[in-house]
Amino acid sequence: MSHLDAVRRSTSLAVVPNKRPQLYLSGDPEADRLLSKDPLALMIGMVLDQQIPLEWAFYGPLNLLQRLGGSFDAAKIASMTEDELVVAFAARPALHRFPASMAKRVQAMCQQIVSDYAGDVTQLWKTATTGDELLHRLRALPGFGQQKAKIFLALLGKQLGVRPPGWAEVAAPFGETGTHLSIADIDGPDALTLVRQHKREMKAAAKATAPAKKAAARKAAPAKKAPVKKAAAKKAAAKKAPARKAAAVKKAPAKKAPAKKTTARA
28-121, which class in CATH? Predict the structure, then answer.
């Protein structure tokens, strides 16, 4: 029995509203099937999608599933010891460049899903009444910054049929149609290539503008005063010390000699 079959038999997987299409995020058919079937796996992949290639990030949930014995859910990951989860993330091949920090982040996300949504991650979007509310909920999860929350909201809307009122506007620019800006736009191998190309262009543009930004920051920063060297300060203080002592001696009043005691004659 494959690990994916084990998941189907041993776990009750929540389903996103509307028919779930096949996702194409990892480049691996089995990993993509898991992402398409299990919303928590998709959320974990989203957390991992940082500072590593997106295929590596979204293959991670299948790898984690295998290391945890063929099944996982938010409650199981939330209740593991931190060391146990770090070992699962760090085993070769590691699930991320920074396996320990990502293990802690994923566990924190699962713990919040358990406390806020009774362990059912789909309640996060099923009960959201507006796009703004859903964005706020995503933004509150560990591992989700503003941009990542917008990208995931766009993925839900574009590919998974989760479209509360105003979702496209609050997910902008990632909610716009006809773009290849993020994983929300990957609906096949060709789209994956276009998204990769866009990311390379963005990195190149950021690299090209970095020197100019640094120069502008240096120009805008106020000039710092040169610090007085300690050695010079000590030398100046040493020169002034004798003069201070001489002045103090000159100003001090002369002390009177003590009067001699006279002895009384009998």
Answer: mainly alpha
